[in-house]
Design brief:
The protein is flat, with a radius of gyration of 18 Å. The protein is built from six helices and no strands. Helices cover 72% and strands 0% of the residues. By secondary structure, it is mostly helical. Helix 2 crosses helix 3 and helix 3 runs antiparallel to helix 4.
Amino acid sequence: MGRDASVMEKELQTEMKTSLIKLLAVSTLVAGMAVAQGHHGFGGGAPPDPATMVADQVGRLTDLLTLTAAQQTQATSIFTNAATAETSLRTNMQTAHTALAAAIKTGDTATIDNLSSQIGSLSGQEVNIQSKAQAAFYKILTADQQAKYGSGRGFGGGFGGPGGFRRGPAAQRQGGARQ
């Protein structure tokens, strides 16, 4: 009658991972559409700089998980490195979306195919960077913090969820923008 607890836990983890992947895929698609339409957020002004976004993110994660000072320092380093790694992706994504908009207007389907693939690849790289940052952050948490972080609020809890921030195409998911 009863299932082995470890089997149930593995099924739950698999379900959570599947849900996260679906959420990331949908978010990336929505962000791409918003960028293609020329949406700009943050009240029309410039988005905050990456250091401010990281500080805000670490502050929210500290409130959520009661991070120690050492964990705050580590988290700041992890998320700053991720933000730095994404800098060229943001520029390349913006360039590709601008070119895609032009190709749509001219009906250049070959260029649309090429740019769509390029945007998909860039989005995948962004997810990769963010996921590795999340994995590194998760490793610095205690078992209790990990449980809280992964209890329905986490794993989106870094970039974009509780305590999260977004830039580039991901900024659209947070109401932010690329300049």
